[in-house]
Amino acid sequence: MDGRLIRKRFGRKITFLAASISIGILLMGGILLYLSSGVRDAWNSYSEISESRNTALSELHRAIGYGGFIHNFKNYVLRKDVSLLNKLDEDLSKAFLVINTYSSLNLNSQEKLSLQIIKATFTRYQENIDVARFAIDSGDSIDGIDARVRVDDSPALTALGVMQQENHRYNKTVSGDMNKQISFLINVLLIGLLAMPFVVWAAYHYHDVMSRFIALTIEKKQVDKALVDTAAQAAEAEEKHIEMAYEAYHCELTRVANRKAFMKTGQVILTNARQHKKCLSILFVDVDDFKFINDTYGHDVGDKVLVEVASRLSVALREGDFVARIGGDEFAMIIQCPEAVNNYERLAGRLLETMNESYEHLAEGLEVSCSVGGAFYPKEGEDLEGLIRIADERMYSVKKNGKNGVFLPVS
Fold first, then answer.
1. Which whole number is the average pLDDT over 100-116?
2. What is the C-alpha separation between 213 and 183, in angstroms, rounded?
């Protein structure tokens, strides 16, 4: 065979083989580039949306929880601190901005409903800012202001929990889809390993595909960590909210209920007694000569006396009874009805004996006594304020007539 013919024939084969290899390499490279580009774009989109969701949820937690708008609003009402008004307007604007930003995302029906509940709660608080300002300027009491502007924010907290659960479900779903895409990309790479020349060439020219894959894995771990941090922040905000609610209704020194809690709980107990036709008694207990104790033994001992009195009153309670510190050295009790009305006198006598027991473990020579006044429901009144007024007047009558005694109505 002529040498030129042989060279021509083999030259065509080599050219065809080279062309086939080149086309295969280009196809593999194109597939890898297309897949990695798709994974990259999907991940960037997911990262952007996830960051927006997590940031918005964190801002809503701050607005609803400790240190946020609702917390500052309650402080404004309790302290009557007008300097908080500018802070309230600023916090409210941020809250509505976050809500509008979150609503622009692709949300499911539960998230949309939860967002509407949260927005409605903030709207009610917004409406009550002017109400609270007018009430404070008018000199209303804290209890009166609180009754006029009270908003039940528990639905908003529940809605926030639903949004967090749905956000977690969204991240879990998208993360699963990303894992499938990454797994598919890996499978394509493994198939490519069957054609080593193609893979070597592609790895040399498209090593950025593997670099991007590693970067995606690292970014996924960072997003998972951000989700865990958001959950921890939500738990901390909830704990602070519970702590704030407890402090609002308890005396900081004695740890028994305060006047606000007494009025609220007392109304509930009185309503229950009215519905079930039960009787009860309001008792006012005042520490005699408390100013003398402070002046003689010091305020530290005076504080210890109040703590001790609160402790003894708490121990004396039965199931269904209630005690609160309503003033400097004044305590109030709600006593459920014994079997007979005259049992109140024995109960009050035992209470007075308990109060008169020795206090020398607090300070040498310290003597403490108490004056007690009471009023019966429904015999002497059917509203809480009226019963409180009667009990208070009788307690002061005891103090005027020698102190260290009990004044209850005649059976």
1. 83
2. 10
φ/ψ (deg, to 5) at 336: -65, 155
Q: Say how far apart CA 95 and CA 70 lie, in whole Å.
A: 10
134 to 77, 81, 124, 260: CA distances (angstroms) = 11, 13, 16, 21
Q: Give the residue among 331, 334, 362 at the shortest CA–CA distance from 347.
A: 334
Q: Give the separation between CA 381 and CA 320, rounded to whole angstroms.
A: 20
- pLDDT level of residue 407 (50, 70, 90 thresholds): confident
Query: What is the domain extent for residue 312?
Result: 259-407
Q: Is residue 26 part of a domain?
A: yes
3-state secondary structure of 388: helix
User: What 3-state class would DSSP assign to 127?
Assistant: helix
Model pTM score: 0.44
Residue 82 sits in a domain of what CATH number?
Answer: 1.20.120.1730
Q: How far apart are CA 373 and CA 332, in angstroms?
A: 10
Q: Torsion angle of alpha carbons 176, 182, 186, 192, nearest 10°?
A: 130
Q: Are residues 99 and 140 in the same domain?
A: yes
Number of Cβ within 10 Å of residue 285's Cβ equals 28
Comparing CA positions, the residue from 395, 335, 393 lying closest to residue 371 is 395
* Contacts of 167 by beta carbon, 8 Å cutoff, 6+ apart: 53, 54, 57, 111
Q: How far is CA 170 from CA 53, 220, 221, 337, in A?
A: 10, 14, 16, 56
Residue 31: Cβ-neighbour burial (10 angstroms; 0-12, 13-18, 19+): middle
Give the count of domains, the chain: 2
Helix (H) or strand (E) holding 183: helix 154-192
- Tokens 């409605």 correspond to 120
pLDDT at 16: 47
Q: Which residues contact 399 (CB under 8 A, 6 or more apart)?
A: 286, 288, 371
Average pLDDT over the chain, rounded to whole? 76
**Cβ-based neighbours of 35, under 8 Å, separated by 6 or more:** 181, 184, 185, 188
Domain-located, residue 107: yes
pLDDT at 328 over 60: yes
Q: How far is CA 18 from the centre of its chain?
A: 69
CATH of the domain at 302: 3.30.70.270
Same domain, 53 and 117: yes
Question: How far is 300 from 49, CA to CA, in rounded Å?
Answer: 57
Measuring CA to CA, which residue among 342, 332, 303, 316 is closest to residue 392? 332
